[in-house]
Amino acid sequence: MLAARIVIVTALAVAAQSSFARSEVCKATSEKEVAALFDRWNVSLQTGEPKKVVQNYATKSILLPTVSNQPRLTAEEKEDYFEHFLQRKPVGAIDSRSIEVDCNTAIDAGLYTFKFADGTAVRARYTFTYKWNGKQWLITSHHSSAMPERG
Q1: In sequence order, what DSSP letters do the residues of 99-122 get, joined into one string?
Q2: What's the first-to-final CA gap in the chain, in angstroms?
Q3: Which of 49, 72, 96, 146 has the fewest beta carbons under 10 Å from its own?
Q4: pTM higher than 0.85 for the full model?
Q5: 3-state secondary structure of 14
Q6: CATH number of the domain that 66 lies in?
Q7: What is the predicted pLDDT for the residue at 15?
Q8: Domain for residue 5, yes or no?
């Protein structure tokens, strides 16, 4: 009898957890809206203000930048990276992408090119992951690496 009660209580606990997990409200979004998040980030680059760029990132996030070997975890570390990167006046353009949307998360990955004020350019692979924080989409991870091939 005691074993039957334990099984029933355990089953109820599992059911309660399952219904709790299913009670999460997912932010309705689209691939177009996720694509626009890159545009928002790119526009923030054009301001030349590192703090404006960093506002696109969640408090708990990681930046693995294109032209630095150091992972950037804090807002200060990200600002430091963008302080130097923005001096080159970068303008990014998506070359190709794949977007995946899930419940309150999204991934935008592909290839982009940065053109700089001095006429140079860098082609890179990228991945942005985003999370809906209840008010806006923020970057939780951003990986960018220069293409290994030249040309």
Answers
A1: EEEETTEEEEEEEEEEE-TTS-EE
A2: 74
A3: 96
A4: no
A5: helix
A6: 3.10.450.50
A7: 52
A8: no
